[in-house]
Amino acid sequence: MAQGAAYCSIEAELDRSGVERWIDDWPARSRRDLLLADLTELGVRAPVSDWDRRLERPPEMLGAAYVLEGSRLGGKLLARQLYRGAPRRFLDAAGPPAAWPRLLSLLNRNLVSPTELEAAASAAKDCFRCFERAAQQNEEPELA
């Protein structure tokens, strides 16, 4: 549940920022609707995050996208720990073919200056902190 709060908020900000101008297959990478469907099936309300950072520059968007796409890889490991029959659309979502290597290639091509690298790293760190804060809240899910 905690991951969902951070994930939904950050993905919504990436959508608002226009990240698809930089990551052309972004709509196919989206998992927010899958997460919300899983929560609905569990009878749990969508969690709320304290994410309030605006991602205005391309390096910031790419740094945040790196974190969300990396969470897809971690989701595969988490999905193995779920009980049989648990909704796992979000954790099992594959995304576009070769999405991770393509994202890394995009980062390598577009984050070249120290300023760009620092902006991307700063946004990524803020994303990780948002996930961490959400996990530390450790609240019981609110039933729908």
Summarize the structure in words.
By secondary structure, the chain is mostly helical. It has one domain: Heme oxygenase-like (Heme Oxygenase, Chain A, Up-down Bundle). It is 65% helix and 0% strand. The chain is built from 7 helices and no strands. It has helices at residues 2-17, 26-29, 32-42, 58-79, 89-92, 99-110, 114-137. Helix 1 runs antiparallel to helix 4 (58-79). The chain is globular and about 45 Å long. The model has no long low-confidence stretch (mean pLDDT 90).
Brief characterization of the structure:
The protein has a single domain, classed as Heme oxygenase-like (Heme Oxygenase, Chain A). The protein is built from seven helices and no strands. It has helices spanning 2-17, 26-29, 32-42, 58-79, 89-92, 99-110, 114-137.
